[in-house]
Amino acid sequence: LIMHLSFSKFLQSNFPHKSVLSLSNAIVGASVLSMPYCFQECGIILATLLMITCAIITSYSCKILIASAQATHSTTYEYLGLRAM
């Protein structure tokens, strides 16, 4: 509870990346709630394999985004999307 209150005070400040932290908090919160259900339904071996597979796919996607940004000299995700079209 103390950490939650201090984090909410941090989000209420004029921090420039407030929306990024808020979105990250929402994503992590949702995954923490759904993870036990996933392990219960799939079993520990299959759920672990699925998590590893998702981590590999996410890592590969990030590498593609970085390579694309470097190839097009894009500094923002928006500009990268415009250059891709």
Automatic annotation (TrEMBL):
Keyword Transmembrane in record: yes
GO molecular function, one term: L-amino acid transmembrane transporter activity
Keywords associated with the record: Amino-acid transport, Membrane, Transmembrane, Transmembrane helix, Transport
Topology in membrane: Multi-pass membrane protein
Subcellular location as annotated: Membrane
Domain Amino acid transporter transmembrane: 18-82
Cited InterPro entries: AA_transpt_TM
Residue intervals passing through the bilayer: 43-66
Keyword Acyltransferase applies: no
Gene Ontology cellular component annotations, sorted alphabetically: membrane
Name of the protein in question: Amino acid transporter transmembrane domain-containing protein
